[in-house]
Design brief:
It is a single chain. By secondary structure, the chain is mostly helical. The chain is 63% helix and 0% strand. It contains five helices and no strands. The chain has helices at 13-20, 28-50, 58-78, 91-111, 114-120.
Amino acid sequence: MTVSATDDRPGGLLAWQWSIYPRGHRNRTNLLTHALSAPVFILGTLALVNSPFVPSVWLGVGGLAAMVLVMFIQGRTHRREQLGPVPFRGPLDVLQRLFVEQWITFPRYVLSGGFARAWRGEPDTRN
């Protein structure tokens, strides 16, 4: 199945991202990077969201910096994958896909056993 940036994303963003996720997450360096950095992204998001409620602007700045750093590092290690990421449709698509991946799709990949199968080099058996 070929996926392009103009696909309709059947089932919506979550279903579409889940359907293509294993093909773009097989390389051990990329997997390890995601395992270490996805929690940093989540904590950065929480810091940014909570920053208006604390007396320091640094919590928000630190949270945003953590999120940007994670995206940079993950972007670099995605280059090691045989199948690169589907091109983004625009700035809103970037934000939507990154948040869905970090908060939902990657944790689901880990909990479903997909991460462990990919780490062992086993094929994706979901389909």
